[in-house]
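Q: How would the structure tokens look for this protein?
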Amino acid sequence: MRRNSAGGIEMDVIYSPIIFSDVDDIVRAFDQTWSHLDELKGDRKLSQLRSYHFVLNFLLTATQGEVARKNGKFMGVILSRVAGQPRLFSSVPQQLAKIDERLNSTPLGHKALSSSQMTGRIEQAMERQIHIGEKAPAEVELFLVAPQARGHGVGGKLWERAVESFERFEAPMFYLHTDSGCDMAFYDHQGMRRVSERLAKDHPGDGRSKQDRSDMYIYAGIPSKVLSAKK
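A: Here is the predicted structure in token form.
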């Protein structure tokens, strides 16, 4: 805790386990970061539903998650899965089904959902090619830092805490999906290794919308080596 330039009290960033009420804040930050308003003809409600679809999909398999807040404001989240651990929230499949039903109720929403689901199938195919899938010992499902928190060390701390948890669970390796719309240089600097890639130019008719058609990658890392790369 410290005082800011205006003389008020400024709290330090607080990192805490995710609770389901955090989902709304995560969705807002996700939508702010990866909104596809052009694809959805400026329909912000559809954009938010699409973001809910993605976030709930990440939560389907997540077994742990941490949220960063400062002065009560959402700063970032990391969701991950460790093999053999219980899923975070049992209500997610029902919540996801409701969101998908709402998306499917309009032609534009149906098109956006179909593109998102195709992306998921492509990711699964990439995993099968390198023989991981749900057998992977650990995986980062979602790593998101709110725009106003970038450059303040929040992402680095969330990342470090997640990798430390993989080491505590004795996961020999962990994986993550990313694409050309994200800061891939971060993972390169963290000692991660790119183990699979799928370039959009090589798959022009893969059923994804124009805005979804980014290059896709899978990275792998050994927890102890990734942690030592930070030192």
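The beta strands are 2-3, 9-10, 14-17, 64-70, 73-82, 138-145, 174-179, 193-198, 216-221.

Confidence is low (pLDDT under 50) at residues 1-10.

Upvote if useful.
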